Amino acid sequence: MGQPQRYELFRSGDVARLLGISRRQLRYWADTDLVAPSHRTAGGHYRYTFQDLVALKTARRLIDAGVSVQRIRRSIAALRRFLPTVHRPLTELVLVATGDLVLVLRDGSAFEAVSGQQWVFEVADLDREVASLRHAVEPGPPRARARRRRAPSSRIA
After folding, report:
1. How far apart are CA 17 and CA 31, in angstroms?
2. Which domains does the chain have, with CATH numbers?
3. 3 state DSSP class of 81
4. Element (DSSP H or E) covering residue 61
5. Beta sheet of 118-120, edge-to-edge order
6. pLDDT tens-digit profile of 78-126?
7. Which residues are CB-contacts of 53 (< 8 A; sequence separation ≥ 6)?
8. What DSSP assignment string belongs to 85-137?
């Protein structure tokens, strides 16, 4: 079959075979908006793009890792709210499952998909912040300090 072309569309039966799931399961995922196909024929048949296959494979792996379909669906909805420029989170982002938790890796950071809570940080970023803080706090070259001298006291002791 070779490398899929961007315009190539895949039939439901072929997709189900590729993923090792039933057509009924595939239809359920589409009907419940877990992963909806990009195209429909005039007769109402689903057609999937290669990107749809990536999203479906991601969903399948998350489910196999123990993440519930409901958690995946909530994660997708939350990601669309948190990241409005991301339209297809399962293909545009890197998702990692640990138990029933879905972490999203994007632009060098990781956060929990449903809550948006950041999970890791880059040590290099912290190092730059510390260097910036030190630079702001450390005195520069010695400055001539103007000392305020008090006028001599006229009091006699």
Report:
1. 19
2. 1-64 (1.10.1660.10), 66-138 (no CATH)
3. helix
4. helix 50-64
5. 94-98, 101-106, 109-112, 118-120
6. 887 778 787 778 778 887 787 777 888 777 777 788 877 776 556 667 7
7. 4, 10, 15, 18
8. T-S-HHHHSEEEEETTEEEEEETTEEEETTT--EEE--HHHHHHHHHHHHHHH
